[in-house]
Design brief:
This protein has 316 residues and is α/β, with parallel strands linked by helices. The chain is 49% helix and 12% strand.
Length: 316
């Protein structure tokens, strides 16, 4: 008997047909071992997996490698195709899907236009970004207008990791998602911290994948080193730990005792979110692991649903 759907999945990917057709080599190159799952993906498959895993609503996003492949015009078209497809899914299946809209960064002008269209026309729930764009990380000053606009809109931003170009092939026998994804999430967080983006844009709610990557282990080291640099402290009037603790983190691949307890110690239960990483993993994977952690019923419900509702009250 399938569980009653109640979970809100904030780490759930879609593969729009036009996206796969236009970026097949790049998409399958990143996740070649999962190629059949991507090629055969359909909204019906997503709904079936959600029902089996007790997921009431999934907020969809595009996974690595994102929508920009070196050409700004093409990036704008791909982002628009993906966002309209996602919005169509949400409209066709009322209450089952939310949308993190993709942006064609590092094209700042194109991204600002897509923000306007996504929120004002498509009525999306937030924005989905990659942890780097052509080895340029989100704290880079050129991206400041994008974050300032998202702060003005009090947006939710979800970050998904991707591998930096200089690490591709660095360890040929180890697929980049194994270690480069968690490390790049940490790089993205650190660049936003050091740039002062977190403190300059207090109305953005930031979500990072996989419990923040390596952040739980490095957080206090980062705070200690940053405390010796006066030029950085001026951008962090509330301190390093204040900024890291206000971020949200999904627990995909981190719902094991070691990883979960580390991120829980850093930020507490209210900042943790359920995610499935569908179609790469099934919704049951995270749910089953969470159930083994000894959380109280209230804590489990917070992670699986209530914390997400605080970010997306319309999903109630």
């Amino acid at each position: 008997m399938n569980p009653q759907p109640h979970r809100i999945d904030t780490h759930h990917h879609i593969i729009p047909p036009k996206y796969l057709a236009r970026a097949r080599d790049q998409v399958l190159g990143v996740a070649h071992v999962h190629a059949p799952k991507l090629i055969n993906w359909t909204p019906a498959m997503a709904l079936e997996a959600m029902d089996q895993g007790g997921v009431a609503t999934a907020v969809t996003s595009i996974s690595s490698p994102g929508v920009w492949f070196g050409d700004d015009a093409a990036g704008r078209e791909i982002a628009r195709d993906c966002n309209e497809f996602a919005a169509g899914m949400a409209s066709d299946h009322k209450g089952r899907f939310g949308v993190f809209a993709a942006l064609p960064l590092p094209d700042v002008d194109g991204s600002l236009r897509e923000i306007e269209y996504s929120f004002d026309v498509l009525k999306v729930d937030g924005i989905g970004l990659m942890t780097n764009y052509g080895d340029t990380w989100p704290g880079n000053a050129r991206f400041a207008p994008v974050f300032d606009e998202l702060n003005r809109r009090k947006a939710v931003i979800y970050f998904h990791p991707t591998a930096p170009g200089f690490c591709t092939g660095l360890l040929p026998e180890i697929p980049p998602p194994t270690i480069e994804f968690p490390f790049d999430t940490t790089r993205a967080i650190l660049t936003l911290l050091y740039a002062g983006t977190f403190s300059r844009c207090p109305d953005i709610r930031f979500i990072f994948s996989h419990a923040g990557g390596a952040l739980p282990m490095l957080a206090y080291r980062i705070a200690a080193v940053t405390g010796t640099r006066k030029e950085l402290l001026a951008r962090l009037p509330n301190g390093v730990m204040h900024e890291l603790k206000k971020l949200y983190y999904d627990v995909v691949n981190a719902s094991n005792p070691i990883s979960f307890n580390a991120i829980r110690q850093l930020v507490g239960i209210p900042q943790l979110l359920y995610g499935s990483d569908f179609p790469f993993w099934s919704p049951q994977s995270t749910a089953a692991a969470l159930a083994e952690l000894g959380l109280s019923p209230g804590e489990l419900r917070s992670v699986e649903r209530d914390n997400a509702l605080a970010l997306f009250p319309r999903l109630k």
